[in-house]
Amino acid sequence: MSSVKDYSEECGRCLHCARPGCRAACPIGNDIPQFLQAVRAAEWERAADIIGHPFGEVCGYICPHEKQCQGGCVLARRDSAVRMGWVESAFFAAHPYAVRRRSDLAAGYRVAVVGGGVSGLTFAASMYSQGADVTVFERNKLLSTLSMIPSFRLPTEALDRILRQITDKFTIVRQNVDSELLCRLHEQFDMVYLATGTTELYRLNVTGEQYAVSYPHFLNGTCSLEGKSVTVVGGGNTAMDCARYAVRRGASATVVYRRQRQDMPAFDKEIDAAQSEGVKFVCNVTPVALRMEHGKTVVTLAQTVSEGRGKLIVTDNTSELLCDTVVTALGASADGSLTQTATALGISMGGDVAGGKIVATAVADGLKAARTISKSNR
Ligand code: SF4
Q1: Beta carbon of 15 within 6 Å of any ligand 1 atom
Q2: I want to staple 50 with a disulfide (CB 3.0 to 4.6 A). Which of 15, 35, 142, 219 is the partner?
Q3: Which atom of ligand 1 is nearest to the CA of 14?
Q4: What's the rounded Cα separation, in Å, for the pair 360 and 322?
């Protein structure tokens, strides 16, 4: 565990630039120099309030800092950017952001938040801090998507710390919200914020699809993988999580991706980590059929060729890959009927349901929606 001395020394490296590139590169617009200065001065509460939401520790662990704050840091030119991600995760592990009443700007307002993920709970925390009564509708458990990230990338305790801050502040309703209920919530509450994430998993759409397991089942599964071979289809962070998780549980893992490796949507650091842990990559191929043979899954892979404008040609040139388990990690889309209803009613949306892809944009959306609503209430 990092000591306060360690990360306060790191804070001391900040040059407090007049035009901080770190801040400009942060999707949330965090006032990073001020945060670093407050941490260094041991002003814990001020530091947490500068960040201003409960997900600082999570951002510290899973943001692509090399592309955001650290990539924008003036010291990155000398390859020695201030390690904001590390400071953030270490600091908030020791000093979680306190969700509490801070003003009465939204006092008396009843707010419904649909979706208990990062964006929904950021919005909820911000509205609560401004005096609103907050009800969160979540069919699953809170932070269910984050909880699927393996603990080697995001420690479970980080989520526990956040949940401890919020559970007694909001009314939590365990309920699925469909379009009909969304309309009713729109009538019954003063404000509704839709942040249901992406719930419709993309499918392979090939013969034998039933022999593959989807990433939520795989990551939540408990069956032994010792000595097994796992093929992961996809190129995002979740695909890297599945492959690294398989390796950690004693399996060999191969990631199969339809384009070139540099086209993978996963963060570079996640791809590098997977490779250094022994994950193999087979690129420019796509599964066109799955079948079972002598207890193994046979994946027929067709070679792909990229043409201009992102077009992909699937050729007749095929090969076969034998493995014990095929995992699909192809991403997901939002529930179209919910987003259509929200758009028609003028309901605010944020996070993945609104096209966001990373935790920082989910936080930024939640804070922005809360600011907009609070302003309109003044
Ligand atoms: S760009 Fe780097 S050195 Fe400058 S204020 Fe931000 S963290 Fe500090």
Answers
A1: yes
A2: 35
A3: 8
A4: 38
CATH architecture assignment, domain 4-94: Orthogonal Bundle (1.10)
Structural class in CATH, domain 201-328:
alpha beta
Nearest CA to ligand 1 atom 2: 73
Q: Is the pTM of this model over 0.85?
A: yes
CA-proximal residue: ligand 1, atom 4 (nearest): 17
Give me the pLDDT at residue 376, please: 59
Torsion-angle region of 355 (φ positive above 0: left; ψ -120 to 50: alpha; else: beta)? left
**What is the number of other CB atoms lying within 10 angstroms of the CB of residue 100?**
10
Whether 22 is in the pocket of ligand 1, judged by its Cβ within 6 Å, is yes
What residues in the chain have per-residue pLDDT under 70?
A: 1-5, 374-378
CATH topology of domain 110-199+334-377: Rossmann fold (3.40.50)
With a 6 A CB cut-off, is 38 part of the ligand 1 pocket? Answer: no
Looking at residue 248, its pLDDT comes to: 95
Rounded Cα distance, 63 and 53, in Å = 15
Span from the CA of 38 to the centroid of ligand 1 (angstroms): 14
Ligand 1 pocket, residue 21 CB under 6 Å: yes
Identify the helix (H) or strand (E) that includes residue 282.
Answer: strand 280-283
pLDDT at residue 167, rounded to an integer: 79
Ligand 1 centroid from CA 336, angstroms: 41
Q: Does ligand 1 come within 6 angstroms of the Cβ of 14?
A: yes
CA distances to 62, 83, 236, 263, 271 from 266, rounded to whole Å, are 12, 21, 4, 9, 7
pLDDT value at residue 88? 96
- Does ligand 1 come within 6 angstroms of the Cβ of 74? yes
User: Which part of the chain has CATH 3.50.50.60?
Assistant: 201-328
**pLDDT at residue 311, as a whole number:** 87
